[in-house]
Write a structure and sequence with these properties.
The longest helix has 13 residues, at 35-47. This protein is an alpha/beta fold. The chain is globular and about 45 Å long. It has helices at 35-47, 62-65, 68-75, 86-95, 170-181, 200-206, and strands at residues 2-8, 13-19, 24-28, 51-56, 79-81, 111-112, 118-121, 124-130, 139-143, 148-152, 155-156, 159-160, 189-192, 198-199. The strands form three sheets. The protein has a six-stranded mixed β-sheet, with helices on one face. It has a six-stranded mixed β-sheet with strand order 7-8-9-10-13-14. It has a two-stranded antiparallel ribbon with strand order 11-12. The chain is built from six helices and 14 strands.
Length: 211
């Protein structure tokens, strides 16, 4: 599996395109908001001959959902989220203008993810892992074969997700990291929702929140 990161919007959110040699592609957390960002995403997909087959959200804070409707409409795919985060998604229109996103277009989920579910595309398989604490319905996507995790805003290089937003809880987040993420092999690469990638082993050893 190849992981392509495109960073969008003023929150510098990492949007991920997951694809393999079959050219089937999954879009995770599209943060593209304006036309230029949408075109950047579309051009990468077109230039690489990719076929978008699924649209996933790790969680539904505004910076991770700005491009959901664009991707859903452009590639005729339904949005998939964990059911516990639907209220997070539905709250976005109430505050989007306050953050400067007056043109936010809502895309509601077509189906729901559950812990332990396998997401298959091309020759790739991802496991859905439920990891709340930053958001009520936060999930991460783990490829055992590739030793890769798309982690959203749970674990960052040297840091963790914020817990001062609605649905956030510090103790729950720490528990999620220790029981769900730190049980994975040390060599697993974590691709977070913001900033550079890291590894499980590095964060076990150096993350100041988790010593």
């Amino acid at each position: 599996m190849k992981v392509t990161c495109l960073t969008f919007n003023p929150f510098q959110e990492n949007t991920y395109l997951l694809h393999d040699d079959t050219k089937e592609c999954v879009v995770v957390d599209p943060g593209c908001y304006d036309r230029q960002e949408q075109e950047q995403l579309r051009k990468y997909i077109e230039d690489n001959g990719l076929k978008v087959v699924r649209l996933l959200n790790t969680h539904c804070h505004i910076d991770h959902v700005l491009g959901n409707k664009f991707v859903a409409d452009t590639y005729n795919v339904g949005l998939e989220i964990h059911p516990d985060d639907e209220q997070t998604l539905r709250s976005v229109p109430a505050y989007s203008s306050n953050y400067g996103f007056a043109q936010y277009a809502e895309q509601l989920p077509a189906s729901y993810l559950k812990e332990g579910e396998s997401i298959k595309f091309g020759n790739t398989e991802l496991e859905v892992i439920f990891a709340p604490g930053h958001a009520l319905g936060h999930v991460v996507f783990y490829s055992k074969a590739d030793k890769t995790m798309i982690g959203g805003d749970v674990l960052f290089q040297g840091s963790i997700g914020r817990t001062d937003l609605p649905g956030g809880d510090f103790d729950t987040l720490i528990q999620s990291i220790k029981t769900k993420l730190f049980t994975l092999p040390d060599e697993v690469t974590v691709y977070p929702g913001h900033g550079p990638e890291t590894t499980i082993g590095y964060e076990k050893k150096y993350n100041p929140f988790l010593r």
